[in-house]
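Minutes, project check-in
Item: structure for the 535-residue chain
Input as provided by the requester:
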Amino acid sequence: MNMKAVLFCRVSSKDQEESGYSLPSQEKLLTDYCISKGFEIGKVFSLSESAGGNKQRKLFLEMLEYLQKNKLKNLIVEKTDRLTRNMRDAVAINSWIENDDEKQVHFVKENFILHRNSKSNDKFIWGIKVTTAQYYLDNLSEEVKKGQKEKIRQGWLPTKAPRGYKTIGDKGHKIHVFDEKTSPLIKRMFGEYSTGKTSLNRLCNDVYDWGLRSLSGGKIQKSRLHRLLKDPFYIGINVWNDQQTKGNQEPLIDVETFEKVQRCLKSKGAPKYSKHEYLFRGLFKCAECSRSITWEEHKCIVYGHCNHYANCSSRKWSQETLIEDAITDELALFKITNPRLMEWLSRALKESNKNESEFYIDSIKQLERQREILKKRLDTMYIDKIDGKITEEFYNQKFKEFSAELVGIDKNISNHTTATNSNQDRRAKLYDIAQGGKESYIACDPNGRRDLIRKVFLNLKLDHEKVTYDLQEDYAMLKGLAQQTNSSNLGKLIDKGDEIFEQYDLTVASKYYATSQPQCSIVLPRVDSDHKPSA
């Protein structure tokens, strides 16, 4: 008889490893058995069931293949459930021993040897043990699924949260909170991609440079980044078994940004990786054919030109620096030099911000009350389900409806927040331009300059080196105000402060900077019934 043997060790969980059932402990037990029986150890196969199911199955089949290939007759295991817990693997073991009288499986702790000529009673016991192990696994799976379903009902994902979050709490009471190290990087990642100016390949490099790494410490792969950007967990929605439910985790990303990212991911015109980031890339169209201007660098000078699609006759290339000069010359016209007018503008913007903030707070409070009502309804409905007062079908239908309403409320809250932040940023930019003109532009980095150009200008077109454009309405108003008050008699009237000045037609500003008295231009002092300044 071939006296070589294969050892097969398996642990089911980390708890088993920590309580004396570790793989080294099993290997020592089986090695001592081989020594006592005079077996020579051919190879040791070790398996932790924390590994995925495919990996477990692969190692089990590799072990059987090794036995067959090397014509070994003895397989040594600790006990039945260390070898297999399912009927499929048991059938494979039976097939292995049935074609040779000398093949044996030694179950050390059970003091039992299985071979082709084993008594029917021994084979029956072996079958019962496998069936019992299979039942244990099936029952465990049911309990796990039940626990996962309850966890989802409570609003928590029953698995590890994606990057940007960490899991805290005791077993059975774990929740997901922001990870202080990675959450700012994930938020920045969504913000960058939502602009539509970067590609996934470029983003992979960027997040690595920021310090966001894969679990192994390397660069996060493009496919993994794609999955993160699509994960609604970041806006407070859990996905489990292809079903979406409202989560209790604090959203890291606002709904508007998340939806922008989804549109960018689906867009056929998603940006490709580019070595050069030109200042005016994507901002200008050709004045003749209205196609996008292409930017290229030659001998350290950046040029813009039309690619001559649609039989365009434009041939001249325009220098970036000359175009930027035209932009800064235009922005210089927005600067208000009159100190008192700047003071009025500042007061108007502050008042507008105060009114909008009060409206925002009232709206959020109302939405929070609606959310609280829905949560109470969900809790009451759950109790009624447990008590048998409502059917499972009715509960599932209402749970889906209420969850959708909660998602809608959170989306409205996010929209309010985004709109308020956007308006504050718009007012701040307007004030900066009014105060600094082109100096405000020069002080920005390239991304800030591009953002400012987008906020001020519409329909930018390039005709050789001549720049044509329209202005955003509030900036058109600001330019007109600056031109008519800088170094003029109108400016002197403002400085005196006691002349009739309200007749100046600036009431168009009221629709941008709403006040409690829309009949008066909020850029200028209010007047009393005699048309004298009252403040």
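Outcome recorded: The radius of gyration is 36 Å.
No further action items on this chain.
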